């Protein structure tokens, strides 16, 4: 089965366990991984089945953590060049924070405490640090953060679930997330409330997700990805599961209206909703995101939220 809007290249997973701050950089393990191999985490014995079924907070978290641990190497090999080590790219369209300024003018980032959620290899945090901000890069996957260590940077990396942030109230001026966490969680309001809690009054949270319209289409970059194949209104999660029926990857769908309601339910104000257009310079494909589809339907939605 072709997933409706799969963010990850081939297959993924995650868990709710709160992890300590990473202390032991396993730089060599990550750096010496041969191209194309996936060495982290335990192997999945057989090709999982893809289905649509309910998946709760704990199951989604556990499944996605495992997926990202197993597939981080492949993900970074496949997308690392496009992402750049220290660029801040909001999605496969290539919209760059340098031009978008969704977190505000870059010159005003100096000295700001910024939390990046679902940071992966922390490319965005590296860009923030280069502009004088004080980023903290948080991710559920230990292996993704090992890639952050491999690339380098002098800011904290925290292995934790976005639904249970290990920070005191009002610790950050800004928060951001480029496709991190929110496409994968069963309870997005919980994540939004956590982010609001750790933001200072007047703080801003900007997050990108797969544009909800993509759920109704096959996740294919070519013409086969242009015909509606399912209901936009069907919120049943996309689940890949092993032979025992255990989820090994989960993606959750929210309609645009759901996302707006989630933001409001978490007591944020929605100040902008950006739908980046596919630029002529970008000839790259990223899974189901392609110049062909990007010229016709949006692929990314970016929510700009503020707390009072
Ligand atoms: C598509 S990647 C995005 C990472 C990075 N922004 C990028 O563009 O490469 C999604 C990231 O979200 C992380 N993630 C998934 N669920 C999460 C959760 N509940 N809490 C924190 N991070 C999560 C994954 O481990 C993964 O690194």
Can you characterise this structure?
The chain is 26% helix and 19% strand. With 308 residues, the protein is of the alpha/beta class. It has helices at residues 27-31, 57-83, 97-100, 123-130, 142-151, 188-198, 256-265, 291-294, and strands at residues 49-52, 113-117, 134-139, 157-159, 172-178, 199-210, 238-241, 247-251, 269-274, 300-306. β7 (238-241) and β8 form a beta hairpin. The chain binds S-adenosylmethionine. S-adenosylmethionine (SAM) binds next to α2. InterPro entries: Methyltransf_11, Methyltransf_Superfamily, SAM-dependent_MTases_sf. Residues 36-46 have a biased composition (Low complexity).
Topology:
Blueprint: H1 27-31, E1 49-52, H2 57-83, H3 97-100, E2 113-117, H4 123-130, E3 134-139, H5 142-151, E4 157-159, E5 172-178, H6 188-198, E6 199-210, E7 238-241, E8 247-251, H7 256-265, E9 269-274, H8 291-294, E10 300-306
Parallel strand pairs: 2-3, 2-5, 3-4, 5-6
Antiparallel strand pairs: 1-7, 6-10, 7-8, 9-10
């Amino acid at each position: 089965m072709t997933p409706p809007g799969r963010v990850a290249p081939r297959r993924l997973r995650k868990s709710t366990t709160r992890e300590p701050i990473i202390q032991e950089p396993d730089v060599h393990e990550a750096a010496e991984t041969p191209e194309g191999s996936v060495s982290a985490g335990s192997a999945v014995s057989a090709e999982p089945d893809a289905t649509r079924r309910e998946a709760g907070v704990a199951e989604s978290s556990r499944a996605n953590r495992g997926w990202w641990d197993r597939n981080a190497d492949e993900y970074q090999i496949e997308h690392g060049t496009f992402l750049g080590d220290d660029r801040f790219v909001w999605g496969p369209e290539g919209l760059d924070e340098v031009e978008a300024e969704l977190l505000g003018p870059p010159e005003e980032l100096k000295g700001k405490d910024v939390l990046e959620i679902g940071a992966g290899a922390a490319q965005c945090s590296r860009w923030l640090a280069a502009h004088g901000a004080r980023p903290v890069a948080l991710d559920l996957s230990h292996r993704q953060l090992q890639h952050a260590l491999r690339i380098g940077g002098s800011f904290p990396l925290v292995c934790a679930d976005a639904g249970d942030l290990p920070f005191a109230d009002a610790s950050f001026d800004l928060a951001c997330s480029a496709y991190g966490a929110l496409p994968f969680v069963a309870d997005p309001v919980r994540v939004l409330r956590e982010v609001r809690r750790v933001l200072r009054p007047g703080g801003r949270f900007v997050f990108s997700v797969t544009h909800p319209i993509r759920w109704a289409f096959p996740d294919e970059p070519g013409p086969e990805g242009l015909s509606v194949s399912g209901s936009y209104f069907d919120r049943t999660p996309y689940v890949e599961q092993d032979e025992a029926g255990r989820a090994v990857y989960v993606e959750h769908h929210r309609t645009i209206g759901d996302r707006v309601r989630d933001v409001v339910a978490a007591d944020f104000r929605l100040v902008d909703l950006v739908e980046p257009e596919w630029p002529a310079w970008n000839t790259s494909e990223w899974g189901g995101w392609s110049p062909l589809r990007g010229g016709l339907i949006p692929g990314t939605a970016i929510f700009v939220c503020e707390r009072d």
